[in-house]
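Lab notebook, bench 4. Still working through the backlog of constructs that have no structural model yet. Next entry is a single chain of 256 residues. Request: give me the structure tokens for it.
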Amino acid sequence: MNSAIVVDSLSKSYSSPVLKNINFSVNTGEIIGYIGPNGAGKSTTIKILTGLIDDFEGNATVLGIDVRKEPLEVKRRIGYIPENASLYDTLTPLEYLDFVGHLHNLDTQLIQKKSKDLLAVFGLAASKDDRMTTFSKGMRQKVLLIAGMLHNPSILFLDEPLSGLDANAVILVKEILSQLKQAGKTIFYSSHIMDVVEKISDRIMIINKGELIANGSFTELNAQAQSGSLEQLFTELTGNREHQSVAGQFIDIMNQ
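Model written out:
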């Protein structure tokens, strides 16, 4: 299969190392679940692959494009949905999506039609002309999701995309991702919601303290660790087995 993403000896440091010699490739049409504790390097990896960070060691290509040398070309081809982003919230959803659509050189009439139709899918038709300053976290996240997919990108990068969404919207997004995969799209999905990652991912990569410590399907990884669930597997591989005792300490303090 063709590689949609190739990462070779990727390292990044701030005051201390964040990524340490990361290597992996992603096939066209795969859904990759990219998980790890807070501070493990997940968001930094995604920001490098989306052309938002160019100061790194090693090499990374997206659709054969060098992300350091041609970050704008990468951004033209991908969709990026972060956990939090500036929405220019004095705009309405239609105004914001019009702005995003024109950044991708879409036709004005197509932008207007797709924006209205996609907002309706997410239950935002009645709010399409409202200023987003009044929007809840979940409503804002729905607009972000639409903006990231409006131009029908070949690769979708998602960093905690379900943040703030209600249960129905979470189910809808999971189904959208599954059908995008069937359509041949490549999806790089970072989240702390283990059950979603387990269910939708073809392959799971676990990063811990800047190092890639696992890379395989859930079935393959689970066969190695004999854990039973992705949550248990994650706990086993990252070495944090103190949740029960820490929770007990919390309860004891509450009861004082």
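Notes after review: Residues 3-87+148-254 form a domain with the Rossmann fold fold (CATH 3.40.50.300). Residues 167-182 form the longest helix (16 residues). Flag for follow-up if needed.
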